[in-house]
């Protein structure tokens, strides 16, 4: 998804901006550009493709100055091309603007500007911003942006420089993330802290409908109504090294292998074994209401949605709460009708997913309480919710989400356990749950040690164009997540199905060229899953079983077996997802795919 990075200070801006853009690459993009202001001029460069292409292009140009803006674009309006890449300029080439989000009334504004004689150079919605800002400019760039904001419908995180306003960047936001970085030798702004964490860990988040002026000497924030805003800086928890490969060939593999630590981080300081009750400080503000709550709605997108689906079964097991899981993109447009004591749980790695954010805003309007389970501290969802629990998983860079899934499951289990223990879950069950959770990091490690075996299975099947993933109950969301992972990174077509539904359709596809990954741990669904495998085998379909260690029967049934350690039935998803992630990774590598930046995908989807 589009990325913004800005710098003004004592250093030359170009290398800072290019370095920042490289840290935003993981979000997904198709073109990039930058503009640097110096004296009464702006140097400017755009390119289709990767940041290295932009870098190469700028090598042969003079780009001087200590104040600049840069952008990675993920096409929404207009194809990926140099003309459509940001920054965009006004007619006289004074204003340079970069923008994340969507200007919904751009057609109307474009017609209006067209009538006034403006000729558009691109097919983007963003270009209207450059022309509008130029039309309002009378020496005060901040005022020109403020006036433009009042004309725009839609979402934006934007940054602007002006040829004749030296050493100043104006940034503004409505609906798209924008963070200011306070450095030793200058000031930054970015859509994502990873672009500037190498320079500073002190950040200030802009809220919706706020603007800020950055200069070499400081920054000032104001509202769209011109009221000045004082806001304390926050400190980012990450280390710059967290966003580096640490010897792994890809972020996806690094993050898969980080999962034992991810689980420890999700549980650190939160487990009290004696009472069988976890401690979740982040939900204290709403606890009195939450403990009485009988209805929870989990809203999320992508992998987070599948974590929510598994969470539903965990809540069903540990609590008396009625849980519903909804795709945020659907939920936000539904007629919402829930009991007054309902809580919404927004699950999101980035905390910026536009549909999830919109869904919780709509639910709030209807009176629901809002909780967030979010990885990025200070993100929009973290701030829009009343209370919440952070994953503390460090940055997830690989576009396909892996470590956050297990972290979300661990946290949903903690939350279910906390609520369950205040309902009728026994001390024995509470202590058992905590023991089960504490064993998980080592159990995940044990699965990771089978990486070579899993790679060998991938080598056997990666040329198959269609795969089926089957599971029941706790295994069903893992089947869906396993199929999603495979298609995301390898572009192999895969379906995730509830095994009981196989006979209603997918069984027609079974043939020797279509492998099925069967999630079949030792739980109450075991016999039913075994019957499904038999049905597949009798139709000559190859079966890769993800099964519990010591299960001898499964070795007779399936072509290949990946073993997972024994755990409590509701914790199985945290283990059975790991082989699915590794299978997807190895298939993608064998097919020579760009694992960390799969085509057409974005890490953080900040548009609808
Ligand atoms: C994008 C990413 C997925 C992610 C989904 C939800 O599609 O590519 O990996 O699961 O967004 O993101 P969130 O940040 O809300 O968890």
Describe this structure in words.
With 608 residues, the protein is an alpha/beta fold. It has 3 domains: 3-236, 4-Layer Sandwich (Glutamine Phosphoribosylpyrophosphate, subunit 1, domain 1), CATH 3.60.20; 246-252 and 262-439, Glucose-6-phosphate isomerase like protein, domain 1 (Rossmann fold, 3-Layer(aba) Sandwich); 450-594, 3-Layer(aba) Sandwich (Rossmann fold), CATH 3.40.50.10490. Helices cover 35% and strands 23% of the residues. It is built from 19 helices and 25 strands. Strands 3-2-4-1-10-9-11-15 form an 8-stranded antiparallel beta sheet, with helices on one face. It is globular. The model has no long low-confidence stretch (mean pLDDT 94).
Question: What is the topological layout?
Answer:
Blueprint: E1 3-9, H1 13-24, E2 31-38, E3 41-48, H2 51-59, E4 67-73, E5 88-89, E6 95-100, H3 106-115, H4 127-136, H5 141-149, E7 156-162, E8 165-174, E9 179-182, E10 186-190, E11 202-205, E12 210-215, E13 218-223, E14 228-229, E15 234-235, H6 251-257, H7 259-267, H8 287-290, E16 295-300, H9 302-318, E17 322-327, H10 328-331, E18 343-348, H11 354-365, E19 369-374, H12 380-384, E20 387-390, H13 403-422, H14 427-448, H15 451-461, E21 466-471, H16 475-490, E22 493-498, E23 516-520, H17 526-537, E24 543-548, H18 552-557, E25 560-564, H19 572-590
Parallel strand pairs: 16-17, 16-18, 18-19, 19-20, 21-22, 21-23, 23-24, 24-25
Antiparallel strand pairs: 1-4, 1-10, 2-3, 2-4, 5-6, 6-7, 7-8, 8-12, 9-10, 9-11, 11-15, 12-13, 13-14
Helix pairs in contact: 4-5, 7-13, 7-14, 9-13, 9-16, 13-14, 13-19, 14-19, 15-19, 16-19
Residues 301-304, 348-350, 353, 356, 399-401, 601, 603-605 line the site of 6-O-phosphono-alpha-D-glucopyranose.
């Amino acid at each position: 998804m589009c990325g913004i990075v800005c710098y003004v200070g004592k250093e030359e801006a170009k290398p800072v901006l290019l370095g920042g853009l490289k840290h935003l690459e993981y979000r997904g993009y198709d073109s990039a550009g930058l503009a640097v202001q110096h004296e009464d001029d702006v140097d400017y460069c755009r390119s289709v493709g990767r940041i290295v292409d932009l870098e190469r292009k700028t090598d042969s140009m003079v780009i001087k100055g200590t104040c600049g803006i840069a952008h990675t674009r993920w096409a929404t309006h207009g194809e990926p091309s140099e003309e459509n890449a940001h920054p965009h300029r006004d007619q006289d080439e004074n204003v340079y603007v970069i923008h994340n989000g969507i200007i919904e009334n751009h057609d109307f504004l474009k017609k209006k500007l067209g009538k006034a004689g403006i000729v558009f150079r691109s097919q983007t919605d963003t270009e209207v911003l450059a022309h509008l800002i130029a039309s309002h400019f009378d020496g005060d760039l901040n005022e020109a942006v403020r006036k433009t904001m009042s004309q725009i419908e839609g979402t934006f995180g934007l940054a602007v420089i002006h040829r004749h306003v030296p050493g100043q960047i104006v940034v503004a936001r409505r609906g798209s993330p924008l963070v200011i970085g306070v450095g030793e030798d200058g000031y930054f702004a970015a859509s994502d802290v990873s672009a500037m964490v190498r320079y500073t860990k002190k950040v200030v988040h802009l809220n919706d409908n706020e603007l800020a002026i950055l200069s070499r000497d400081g920054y000032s924030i104001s509202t769209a109504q011109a009221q000045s805003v004082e806001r304390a800086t926050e400190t980012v928890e990450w280390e710059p090294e967290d966003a580096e490969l640490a010897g792994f060939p890809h972020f996806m593999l690094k993050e898969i292998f980080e999962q034992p630590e991810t689980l420890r981080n999700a549980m650190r300081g939160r487990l009290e074994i004696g009472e069988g009750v976890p401690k979740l400080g982040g939900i204290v503000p709403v606890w009195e209401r939450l403990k009485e709550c009988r209805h929870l709605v989990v809203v999320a997108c992508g992998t987070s949605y599948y974590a929510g689906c598994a969470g539903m079964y965990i809540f069903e097991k540990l609590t008396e709460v009625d849980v519903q899981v909804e795709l945020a993109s659907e939920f936000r447009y539904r007629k919402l009708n829930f009991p007054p004591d309902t809580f919404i749980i927004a699950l999101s790695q980035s905390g910026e997913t536009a549909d999830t954010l919109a869904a919780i805003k709509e639910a709030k309007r209807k009176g629901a309480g809002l909780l967030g389970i979010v990885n990025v501290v200070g993100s929009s969802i973290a701030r829009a919710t009343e209370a919440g629990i952070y994953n503390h998983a460090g940055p997830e860079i690989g576009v396909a989400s892996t470590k956050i899934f297990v972290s979300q499951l661990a946290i949903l289990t903690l939350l279910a356990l906390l609520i369950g223990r205040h309902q009728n879950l026994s001390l024995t069950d509470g202590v058992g749950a905590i023991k089960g959770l504490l064993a998980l990091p080592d159990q995940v490690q044990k699965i990771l040690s089978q990486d070579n075996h899993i790679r060998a299975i991938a080598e056997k099947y990666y040329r198959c164009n269609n795969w089926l993933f089957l599971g029941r109950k706790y295994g069903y969301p893992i089947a869906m997540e396993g199929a999603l992972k495979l298609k995301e990174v390898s572009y192999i077509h895969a379906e995730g199905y509830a095994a009981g539904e196989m006979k209603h359709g997918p069984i027609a596809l079974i043939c020797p060229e279509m492998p099925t990954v069967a999630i079949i741990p030792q739980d109450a669904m075991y016999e039913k899953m075994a019957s499904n495998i038999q049905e597949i085998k009798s139709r000559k379909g190859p079966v890769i079983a993800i099964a519990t260690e010591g299960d001898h029967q499964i070795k007779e049934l399936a072509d290949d077996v990946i073993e997972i350690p024994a755990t409590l039935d509701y914790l199985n998803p945290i283990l059975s997802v790991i082989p699915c992630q590794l299978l997807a990774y190895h298939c993608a590598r064998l097919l020579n795919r760009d694992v960390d930046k799969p085509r057409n995908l974005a890490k953080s989807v900040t548009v609808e």
